[in-house]
Amino acid sequence: MEGTPCPSPHPLRSSLRPPTPDPLTPDRDITHAHFQAGDTAVVLKGAAGGELWGDAMRIVAPSWHTPTDEDGWRLRDATGGAQTYITAHPRYLVHLSRRCPDCLIYLRAMEDYLLPKYTDGEAIVDCGWYTTTALGQLVHVADARSGS
Ligand SMILES: [Zn+2]
Questions:
Q1: Ligand 1 mean position to 30 CA, how many Å?
Q2: What mean pLDDT is predicted for residues 140-146?
Q3: 129: number of CA atoms within 13 Å, CB side?
Q4: CA angle, 22 as apex, 147 and 98 as ends, to 5°?
Q5: Does residue 123 belong to any structural domain of this protein?
Q6: What's the total number of domains in the chain?
Q7: Residue 52 belongs to domain spanning
Q8: Most-buried pick from 3, 90, 97, 105 (CB within 10 A)?
């Protein structure tokens, strides 16, 4: 007999997959001075519709990143709600406002690594690499482990 399309809705894919590690961001070599106030940048968090997905933010001012005890950047996330302002480490950031080789290399590496794993849909997949502390510090899972 003919197969019939499965009528059940797509389950949340992210909850069924094993977590995808992010070995690239922790190894990224980028200086604090690579960014400056006024730049726009994105924090990559996963994939959606065959492209990388993340949160776009505006870089506001230098700010100490306490989870890594290194210089970070204060960011304004227009869609961040209660956490409009967060502080991130430079290696979490990718330039949107200009195309620079340093960020493009990382972007391409993330695409090559991540997109083949998420080829089957338009759903947003948040890989869960980042958390935000009560003090508004954005922390990559690799930094959270080593910093506590
Ligand atoms: Zn850049």
A1: 9
A2: 83
A3: 22
A4: 100
A5: yes
A6: 1
A7: 29-143
A8: 90
Whose tokens are 């083949």? That residue is: 116
Q: How many Å lie between the centroid of ligand 1 and the Cα of residue 102?
A: 5
Residue 108 falls within a domain, yes or no? yes
Q: Which residues are found with C-beta within 5 Å of the ion, ligand 1?
A: 95, 100, 102-103
Residues 49-84: tens digit of each pLDDT? 999 999 999 999 999 999 999 999 999 998 878 889
C-alpha torsion sign, points 73, 40, 37, 32: positive
Secondary-structure percent of the chain, ordered helix, strand, coil, rounded to 5: 25, 30, 40
C-alpha dihedral sign at 24, 28, 34, 35: positive
36 CA to centre of ligand 1 in angstroms: 10
Ligand 1 centre distance from Cα of residue 113 (Å): 19
